[in-house]
Write a structure and sequence with these properties.
globular; WD40_PAC1; chromosome; mainly beta; DNA damage; disordered C terminus; about 35% strand; DNA repair; five-stranded mixed β-sheet
Length: about 350
């Protein structure tokens, strides 16, 4: 770390390099905080959390039980060990509670007086934090998987919404209506993210294995779709459609500067993309992790082999039985042929 500091002071290194190195060091050294606990309110799984960026003090959580909780993260006890208390709860006794699982919660980026939640009950609700009553309710025809508000937008107040429908819905927070749909996906929309750099740029991910990047000011279609093979047709499938993953794409995240986009899929892969041109940067996040400890053992860790989806079972049956060896242990250079 001293080497990074010296190089930065001498002007030999970009300050961003030091920041990335320190961020990486901290991530690799994460461990459970034994001094801080959080009130246990949910009676079922917690699907989503969000911390407001104004003070970094209040956290939202949404659960599979339909409950939404607001926590105060500040330590008011003046003791090293403390519990983050629940400030307020939209519980099962509330007439406004979501009937089914809450999939996404998000604070309004510019004011903690409002937050938004979306649920499998086919609704998205805009909440007044003080009264814990919905100021607006958007109704959809299918389950709502995700929503996102731009963290930087000044010229629009749009909420992007991904549902069981193939179309991405754009809802206007000011008018309380759905004003636009984005058509291009062939499956359910599982994740949506606004760029933190350009307020009109939106990325969307779907069960169709595709990630589309849009300029919402254009009605003609998406700007481009991400191609994991960067145009190399010898590696691509016979389909003409570009795919970002060999499976459902269920996660999107822009880097803080908005220059790159990270995606995750059910193929157990993460990919990093140049958000300006859609190129796959080909960063290899690997298949295996190895760890060593005081118990004198070196352990190999791999993702749990996921059972085939319903639509994949027929394909597997036609092609015969699947190999039982985890693909993470298969090499790519040898052959079974004599």
């Amino acid at each position: 770390m001293l080497g990074f500091l010296t190089a930065r002071q001498a002007g030999l290194d970009d300050p961003l390099r030091l920041r990335r190195a320190e961020s990486t060091r901290r991530v690799l050294n994460l461990e459970l905080n034994h001094d801080r606990d959080v009130d246990r309110i949910h009676s079922n799984g917690i699907n989503t959390i969000d911390i407001e960026v104004i003070e970094g003090r209040y956290m939202l959580s949404g659960g599979a039980d339909g409950v939404i909780v607001v926590y105060d993260l500040e330590n008011n006890s003046r003791k090293p060990q403390y519990t983050c208390k629940a400030v307020c709860t939209v519980g099962r006794s509330s007439p406004y509670v979501h009937r089914f699982s809450v999939e996404t919660v998000q604070w309004y980026p510019h004011d903690t007086g409002m937050f938004v939640s979306s649920s499998f009950d086919k609704t998205m609700k805009v909440w007044d934090t003080e009264t814990l009553k919905p100021a607006e309710v958007f109704q959809f025809e299918g389950n709502v998987y995700c929503h996102h508000m731009s963290p930087i937008a000044r010229k629009h107040s749009l909420i992007a919404v991904g549902t069981k429908d193939q179309k991405v819905q754009l809802c206007d927070l000011k008018s309380g209506s759905r004003i636009q749909v984005l058509q291009g996906h062939r499956g359910e929309v599982l994740s949506v993210r606004w760029s933190p750099r350009y307020e009109h740029i939106l990325a969307t991910a779907s069960t169709d294995s595709r990630v589309l990047v849009w300029d919402v000011r254009r009605a003609s279609g998406s700007l481009f779709s991400l191609d994991q093979h960067n145009g190399d047709k010898s590696k691509a499938s016979s389909e003409a459609v570009n795919t970002a993953h060999n499976g459902r794409v269920n996660g999107l995240c822009f880097t803080v500067d908005g220059l790159y986009l990270l995606t995750t899929g059910t193929d157990d892969r993460m990919r990093l993309w140049n958000s300006a041109n859609g190129k796959n940067t080909l960063v290899n996040y690997g298949k295996e992790l190895y760890s060593g400890g005081k118990d004198c053992n070196i352990l190999a860790w791999v993702p749990v082999v996921r059972p085939p989806d319903v639509e994949e079972e027929g394909t597997a049956a036609k092609g015969g039985s699947q190999a039982t060896v985890n693909p993470a242990f298969e090499d790519a250079w040898s052959s079974d042929e004599d």
